[in-house]
Amino acid sequence: MEVAKIENISRIYKIGQVETQALRNVNLTIESGEFTALVGPSGSGKTTLLQLIGCLDQPTSGKLTINGKDVSQLDRNQRADMRRGTIGFIFQFFALIPTLTAYENIEMPLLLNGKSPAERQQRVNQLLKAIDLEDHSHHRPDQLSGGQQQRVAIARALVTQPALILADEPTANLDTPNGKLVMETMVRLNQETGVTFVFATHDPRVIQYARRIVTLRDGMIVSDEAGEGQLVESAAPVLA
């Protein structure tokens, strides 16, 4: 099943009289359950492509379909609804709310979606167990390590049970051990839940986990190939 389909998409940014073409007639299909890396040097277009797939930006031309819906036909509120219900985001700088605990940060999307207290509690506790932070549920971000904060961000992205998770340089601010733990957490949750992960990176330590590697250069896809797809041994799944 197609989760995202990009057809002849271009993105041009204009500042004054200067135009920059960030993407040039890109075509890409992401299938359900993929664990895909968008790679390339700085300025290659990988972050722009990730933002377009996440409905955070709109293409200058071309067509984007998410979960069978033509995004170009959606208004601003409908795109916001899609982001809230269909897409989860993991950011380079974690983007946790500093005054909220780990539990409350994970719970926030469910509050915004109007879920009941019982459903919120069940889902958040499941995810705290999945990321092995049950004992840190009442800690605020400044009481957590960088790796722990990113695992909370992963749980927050998953809590609404989206079809697609997008991650922009998810390990860029982590040391090697924490980066490895974050990637293994993402792989394990992909294996257990079947949720699709697409992440932008230039880190070889991250690329080794991808089962598909899409390389961009100068706003164009220059290769699309199978990755090593390093798997992670899982205990009994903790997510329904």
From TrEMBL:
InterPro entries: AAA+_ATPase, ABC_transporter-like_ATP-bd, ABC_transporter-like_CS, ABC_transpr_LolD-like, MacB-like_ATP-bd, P-loop_NTPase. GO terms for molecular function: ATP binding; ATP hydrolysis activity; transmembrane transporter activity. This is ABC transporter domain-containing protein. Gene3D superfamilies: P-loop containing nucleotide triphosphate hydrolases. The keyword Nucleotide-binding applies. Coiled coil: none annotated. GO terms for cellular component: membrane protein complex; plasma membrane. The chain crosses the membrane at residues 86-103. Pfam families: ABC_tran (PF00005).
